[in-house]
Amino acid sequence: MSDRPDFEKMNCPLPLTLHTTVQLAHGAGGRLSDELIDRLIRPRFANPELDRQEDQAVLEVPAGRLSFSTDTFVVSPLEFPGGDIGDLAVNGTVNDVAMAGAAPMALSVGLVLEEGLEIAVLERILDSMAKAAREAGVKLVTGDTKVVDKGSCDRMFINTSGVGMVRPGVALGADRIRPGDALLLSGTVADHGMAVMTVREGLSFHAGVRSDTCALNGLVGDLLDAAPGLRALRDPTRGGVATTLNEFARAAGVGIRIREDAVPVRTDVRAACELLGIDPLYVANEGKLIAAVPADQADAALAAARAHPRGRDAVILGEAVADHPGTVSVVTPLGAERILPMPVGEQLPRIC
Amino acid sequence: MKFLDEYRDPALARGLLDAIARTVTRPWTIMEICGGQTHSIMRHGLDQLLPPEITLVHGPGCPVCVTPLETLDRAMAVAAREGVIFTSFGDMLRVPGSDDDLFRVKSRGGDVRMVYSPLESLKLAQAHPDREVVFLAVGFETTAPGNAMALRQAVDLGLTNYSQIVSHVLVPPAMEAILGSPVNRVQGFLAAGHVCTIMGWEEYEPIAEKYKVPIVPTGFEPVDILQGILRTVEMLEQGVVGVDNRYQRAVERGGNPAARAVVDSVYEVCDKPWRGIGVIPGSGLRIRPELAAYDAEKKFRVTDLNPTEPEVCIAGEILQGLKKPPECPAFGTECTPLTPLGATMVSSEGACAAYHRYQRARS
Question: How many structural domains compose chain B?
Fold first, then answer.
């Protein structure tokens, strides 16, 4: 071993490429961008459409009607009990597409990353997106990534858009609801919103509360099989069940009457709601649907929902009625009746 | 859920409703003091189920509603300042001041944050030593200990960047103001159960004697409220005067001495204006003079306050039990929870908001 410097092995120091946090250069379209996409994103989402590495995906589709939806996710914190912004973003759009009676097939993903976001967090969220897509049977076929200056977004925002073919012969819409229709709710309410609330700064109680985020396309398929006359489907996310029911009542020009004691709420969720003075009917869900079903198909729909793992706790919540059109009312356990209005103002922080 | 379902049990509630109907022989006007009780009565539809002889009027027990306009205007001026983190309970953010609310201050760049506990504001002060953290401390005797504890800890920790705007109010002087009014129609009271958990009920005994009324400390669930009403009606029918506790599982005669001691260590009793009602002697709390360094009113000199109430709003008469919300010409038209003219339309404990939320369909 010589003491003299070995110029043979000398080279210019390369810029650091193995980062632990997201850098502005990761979004600049150069080498770091490629690394982010090739190393972190594409392998996780791999499918033939994405692997073409073009600026768009080309999808083979049968003739028919396409359901198309988009949603943007800004939940804080990024990770919460039962889920994270990643599976939320996949399931949210899958569900919106499915609520037309469609089978979701492909999603696009737009990522907005804040400079300084830990790569480890990003990897966990990408893993969770890939897993959610696999479980829902959809492919993430095209995407885009932007990095913004520190302070320009809160760590990470995700937009997803999705498409799926509507089942032939199925036409759903809130305006189709008629007096007498039964309103089916697929399970417990308020799990997602309260899960996010409980991990917010200063609210460290009720560790057992978990988000219900999940894809509902399988359940939608079973409901359509069992109740082909299904009138309308909607997932009661932001604003909760109360908001969806009000949207139904207004769109159809019918009244809606539900029974308060029919609303399923998990005990720990209910305790958290009571403590914070929040009505669970106004809290977001990310894995539930409300279906309006003709009365003669209500039993079949309920049985089909309960036979599906994601509709195990399904109930008939109430019905559409001819009186008080455009308004939702609740019959209390004591037999009094009060209205269930649209929510006013901001009730909760960013939850989806 | 244990300790909740029992008190919402429909069979128990129906039994009490039947007992009330059997007991009552003539019209009685009963005031529930607390906005939480008003909310519960509306939410469970109890007012629809009571016999027609009983009129429930809704008291001034909504801290958001009675916070003076001047305090709100001052809070907004402080919240808008550079370097301030302004904290408050959620309901306060939407209460209209003279021409603004805290949400709008936030949208213009003010750092306004909703907290669920006053201790969260204290944590913010510790986490941001370079900022001034201000907490808007409102409420009745129930919330006073928590707010006082935050201030107490700030003092003990030697924090110099923490202060409070205090607008605390006390129930007994307000009850005296209502009973002493020449237009009073209240014949019996459901006293606010949670206030009594802190203060006990001994301070109501002289009021019951002086004005010859029954006062019944009452809880918040349907069965609690119906028990309170039943006992009040029994006392009215029998001409019994005095205090009879019907919230035994939470309230003792002397209240919670430890909580009262914390309050006394940082706050003192003062004369206090109530929004819509006016100044009631000895009805408020303020920061003790020796803790002036923690008094945001003194720390941030705000001048040019010119509080102006909307002319049409009848919140004052509603808070005194003289009128009900639907009697207001603006109710449900000009004044809604989205466009509130008065604080009673904002808070979930406000009588106007409770009526608007639960009763529009029937009116």
Answer: 2
